Amino acid sequence: MTVLAAPKGVAVLGSTGSIGTTALRVLDRQRERFRVTALTANSNATLLREQARKFSPSFVGMVESQGDGDEEWKSGTEALVAAATRNDVDIVLNAIVGAAGLDATLAALEGGKRVALANKETLVIAGDLVRQACASGAGEVVPVDSEHSAILQCITGHPTAQVRRVVLTASGGPFRDWSAERLASATVEDALRHPTWRMGRKITIDSATLANKALEVIEAHFLFGLPYERIDVVVHPQSIVHSFVEFIDGSVLAQMSVPTMEIPVLYALTHPERVADEGVPAFDPVKISPMTYEAVNHERFPALRLGIAAGKAGGAAPAVFNAANECAVAAFLAGKIRFPDISRGIASALDKLSGMPADTREQLLAADATARRHVKEMFGC
Ligand code: NDP
Ligand code: MG
Q1: Which residues have CB less than 5 Å away from ligand 2 (the ion)?
Q2: What value does the mean pLDDT take over residues 328-355?
């Protein structure tokens, strides 16, 4: 007789975003295995209500209060930590964008939960604190990011000592073929036209500058305990191979799929198991060919080099890199600065603030706030 385990409770933080809505599509198809027990959003109350009606979670959190007196709706940033630490939550899918996701990740790990982490900024700001929280309790981080999911799928069962290096793939973004002169006048609309992925606005701009790949290199360093010298990046415009792992015997494993986040989202929930999902498109090697690879052009995309240098410098530098980038991207999206100003803002903040103290959460948040102020003052916005 097969005894079915009770469905695991999942909190989806940032349920109204690109990853959040993707996750709910996946969870809707996996109702015997998972139950959505908590949902949070920042501003989109209409969609959050719709989701709450469909999944009947026991907790709904709205970060920006809507002031409608609806009692089961908790508001404020504490709502994120409250959702992440509930007894009926086994897995916290952190799909919040930016530094706002940090406390929920730390609280969930301290509470012994699995964190299915899309919110890469959390690891970039406080990778050591996240690692400590995992080491000191029963919590664990499983990546949602497609590159890191690919690496996890390739290395599971192999000790890190057998990994010679990992190679993260990058689509190259919408400006892969643009000259430096043309990049200087790129508009917000141009930058939001990503060739292979439909994502939230912030990560789409990060993909255009390649700051996203820098965040991912730092993310890989903390997730897999690899030194930066063993993490490389290659441009692969088709986004079919999500990363390579090269082993010490020269053998290379890659994980492939059509570009959909549904696959890494589900894997983050079920790792190391795999479960059937008929909802994802079938893989057809003929349709996806040819697959091509190019070296990164660091002159045209300086944010990648800046981010890797920040990762290598350690201390406050990754948090400063992340905060300066978040602030500059918001200014670019608001039409206040030009595209190349994003990496200029990051470079200036790193130059001035990398040496700030970074041992505690409070110090990291102070470095984050100072970097944001620096970028705002630099551009007068
Ligand atoms: P979106 O902008 O589409 O969604 C962000 C979500 O977070 C929304 O639900 C939003 O709520 C909520 N949110 C925004 N700001 C806050 C805040 N200050 N406090 C609490 N909640 C907040 O982003 P994505 O889904 O694209 O990305 C989410 C994370 O996943 C990012 O870290 C990104 O780098 C990462 N990621 C995304 C991928 C993708 O394909 N989109 C791929 C790999 C990683 P509301 O909508 O109600 O305002
Ligand atoms: Mg990615």
Answers
A1: 145-147
A2: 98
Q: How far is the CA of 377 from the centre of ligand 2 (A)?
A: 30
**Average pLDDT, integer, range 297-301:** 96
Residue 289 has pLDDT above 90, yes or no: yes
Q: How far apart are CA 163 and CA 150, in angstroms?
A: 14
Question: Which is it for strands 241-247 and 163-170: parallel, antiparallel or unpaired?
Answer: antiparallel
Instruction: Name the closest ligand to CA 262.
Output: 1
Residues 156 and 136 in one domain: no
* Sole residue written with tokens 């007196």: 69
Distance 206 CA to ligand 1 centre (A): 13
pLDDT in tens, 75-113: 667 899 999 999 999 999 999 999 999 999 999 999 999
* 32: containing domain: 8-143
Residue 16 and residue 98 in one domain = yes
Domain assignment present for 271: no
Mean pLDDT of the 124-152 span = 96
Number of structural domains, the chain? 2
Question: Are 102 and 161 members of one domain?
Answer: no
With the most atoms of ligand 1 within 8 angstroms of its CB, the residue from 21, 141, 203 to mutate is: 203
165 and 47 inside one domain: no
Ligand 1 cavity residues, CB under 6 Å = 14-20, 41-44, 63, 80, 95-97, 100, 118-121, 145, 197, 199-200, 202-203, 261
What does pTM read for this prediction?
0.96
Domain match, 103 and 71 both:
yes
Helix, coil or strand: residue 187: coil
Residue 344 falls inside a structural domain: no
- Counted residue by residue, the chain has a size of 381
Tell me which amino acid residue 39 is. Answer: L
Interval 53-75 mean pLDDT: 75
> Exposed, middle or buried: residue 151 (CB in 10 Å: 0-12, 13-18, 19+)?
buried
Instruction: Read off the CATH number of the domain in which 95 is found.
Output: 3.40.50.720
